């Protein structure tokens, strides 16, 4: 199984209902967080790994994302857009973008939720993910301690294997690496959720992962947006001065 990771996708098709009215006229990925729009931090960190091929899906106000980021030259990446008339959910969106992410349908790729921020060393994580794919992984997930808004977690983690057990449950961070084969049953251009695919693959022993205990923020509400802005101003922006 090919373990080379050379493409990334940023999920940016959500409506951002909990962020309204901020997202009524501005797509959530373009909300300002310190010196960058939210999605800008993802592009910067992805580029630092050496990846230059980036796919961004969009639906709500997607033309504003394209107008702002254009072809990605400002971030030294090449952006291709996967436009969804109606949001296709996570698995549906990834399935539609597969020809851009893995043209040979054999190489794994990085996917990041557009509304999370983490000081995760992406390059190190990608090295561990690549090793997992040589061992037959279909997915590699970054899991975090359960936040207040998701107290029961999403998956269990034992050693480096992700499962569905009730014990040792952690929350999926929205950062993962996937093999195209995970999406083979997803009908193109149809909505499909990622969770059921991951749970099925985990049951078969095909999902690997790691726990991350550093800073992770799910920027899903105005209050957590302020948390992200405060953290970025004290950390990432502060180091750029």
Automatic annotation (TrEMBL):
SUPFAM superfamilies: Nucleotide-diphospho-sugar transferases. InterPro entries: Mannose-1P_guanyltransferase (IPR050486), MurU (IPR054790), NTP_transferase_dom (IPR005835), Nucleotide-diphossugar_trans (IPR029044). It holds the Pfam family NTP_transferase. Residues 8-230 form the Nucleotidyl transferase domain. Gene3D superfamilies: Spore Coat Polysaccharide Biosynthesis Protein SpsA, Chain A. This is Nucleotidyltransferase family protein. The lineage of its organism: Bacteria, Pseudomonadati, Pseudomonadota, Betaproteobacteria, Neisseriales.
């Amino acid at each position: 199984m090919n373990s080379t990771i050379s493409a990334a996708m940023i999920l940016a098709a959500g409506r951002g209902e909990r962020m309204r009215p901020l997202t009524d006229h501005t797509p959530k990925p373009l909300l300002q967080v310190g010196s960058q729009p939210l999605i800008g931090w993802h592009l910067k960190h992805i580029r630092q790994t050496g990846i230059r091929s980036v796919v961004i899906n969009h639906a709500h106000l997607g033309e504003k994302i394209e107008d702002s980021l254009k072809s990605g030259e400002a971030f030294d990446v090449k952006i291709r857009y996967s436009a969804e008339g109606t949001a296709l959910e996570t698995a549906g969106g990834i399935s539609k973008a597969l020809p851009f992410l893995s043209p040979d349908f054999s190489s794994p790729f990085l996917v990041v939720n557009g509304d999370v921020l983490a000081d995760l060393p992406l390059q190190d994580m990608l090295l561990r993910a690549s090793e997992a794919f040589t061992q037959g992984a279909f997915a590699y997930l970054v899991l975090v301690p359960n936040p207040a808004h998701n107290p029961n977690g999403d998956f269990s983690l034992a050693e480096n294997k992700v499962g569905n057990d009730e014990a040792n449950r952690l929350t999926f961070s929205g950062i993962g690496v996937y093999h195209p084969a995970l999406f083979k049953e997803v009908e193109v251009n149809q909505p499909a959720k990622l969770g059921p695919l991951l749970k099925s693959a985990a049951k078969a022993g095909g999902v690997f992962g790691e726990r991350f205990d550093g800073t992770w923020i799910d920027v899903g509400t105005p209050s957590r947006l302020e948390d992200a802005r405060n953290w970025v101003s004290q950390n990432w922006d502060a180091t750029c001065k």
